[in-house]
Amino acid sequence: MNTIQFKPIYQERVWGGRWLAGKFGRELPRANPVGESWEMVDRPEAQSVCIQTGQTLRELLQQHSAEIMGPLHDPSQPFPILVKWLDCSDRLSLQVHPTTKIAAELGGEPKTECWYLADTTADAALIVGLKHGVTRAQFEQAIEDEALEPLLHRFPVQPGESILLESGRLHAIDAGNLILEIQQNSDTTYRVYDWGRKGLDGKPRQLHVAQSLQSIDFEDFEPAVTPASGEKCESVLAECPQFRIRQQRLVEGDRFGPPKTREPMILSVVEGELSEGESRSVFAAGSNLLLPYAWDGELICKEPCTMLITDRFVDV
């Protein structure tokens, strides 16, 4: 079975821009700023469409579940991972995703995600967690006073770094970041603060303060990023119950084939270029591929390449 690639689904966001056009040469909608490109999604409100066949991801899983996901997969279950590019030309809202327990109480979905910083401006930063010693009472008072920023853990970032955000972790992406986000298949986000900003319609965006306060881990102080891996051939960027993400570097002529232990994988090209076997199918930087359980092909490095490999998201 061959690799599977999908058409991107572009999402307009007030904090977005045109970075995906400049970085990856993509043709974007011309109207409002594009903040997200959903690269791989299987949800009722959004379906990735296969470039090769025109089928949706849901249709592919219903018809070829064993070949794509392995013999133990229930074809009625959605694809468990959602892959996005985020163009954060402006700062995002301060937000949180609920844990499994809290999500059940609030009628939402848990969401653990990993951010890989593919590109940054010189002054780029992230906001993740609280400063040491901040209490819930101080946080609630700061919301009323509109003075939250001094309580938040904000730190500079650079390309190649990454950070895992498990459900319950308070976070915001500051301006100047191009991020590959690999996450649980969920779209539940509670905004606790939006810096006084208005949406594309000119109105303040909806906040979810009560739900956020119920979801935030108030013992999560000053988490650190995973540093860029330098010249290492392979390194683990994130590992959690929902998935594992490894970074692998290839040089021209290197080949990448199926793992010894069969399982589906997602391969994200963040630098360089790959081709599928000796064919003319070329996957440039920005590409995200689904490598099925039954994939028996080979990818060849055309120029020095950095890729992320997401696996362990399904039982096999």
From TrEMBL:
<feature type="domain" description="Phosphomannose isomerase type I catalytic">
    <location>
        <begin position="6"/>
        <end position="106"/>
    </location>
</feature>
<dbReference type="InterPro" id="IPR051804">
    <property type="entry name" value="Carb_Metab_Reg_Kinase/Isom"/>
</dbReference>
<keyword id="KW-0413">Isomerase</keyword>
<dbReference type="InterPro" id="IPR046457">
    <property type="entry name" value="PMI_typeI_cat"/>
</dbReference>
<dbReference type="GO" id="GO:0005975">
    <property type="term" value="P:carbohydrate metabolic process"/>
</dbReference>
<feature type="binding site">
    <location>
        <position position="97"/>
    </location>
    <ligand>
        <name>Zn(2+)</name>
    </ligand>
</feature>
<keyword id="KW-0479">Metal-binding</keyword>
<dbReference type="GO" id="GO:0008270">
    <property type="term" value="F:zinc ion binding"/>
</dbReference>
<dbReference type="GO" id="GO:0004476">
    <property type="term" value="F:mannose-6-phosphate isomerase activity"/>
</dbReference>
<dbReference type="InterPro" id="IPR011051">
    <property type="entry name" value="RmlC_Cupin_sf"/>
</dbReference>
<feature type="binding site">
    <location>
        <position position="171"/>
    </location>
    <ligand>
        <name>Zn(2+)</name>
    </ligand>
</feature>
<dbReference type="InterPro" id="IPR014628">
    <property type="entry name" value="Man6P_isomerase_Firm_short"/>
</dbReference>
<keyword id="KW-0862">Zinc</keyword>
<dbReference type="InterPro" id="IPR014710">
    <property type="entry name" value="RmlC-like_jellyroll"/>
</dbReference>
<dbReference type="Pfam" id="PF20511">
    <property type="entry name" value="PMI_typeI_cat"/>
</dbReference>
<feature type="active site">
    <location>
        <position position="191"/>
    </location>
</feature>
<feature type="binding site">
    <location>
        <position position="113"/>
    </location>
    <ligand>
        <name>Zn(2+)</name>
    </ligand>
</feature>
<protein>
    <submittedName>
        <fullName>Mannose-6-phosphate isomerase</fullName>
    </submittedName>
</protein>
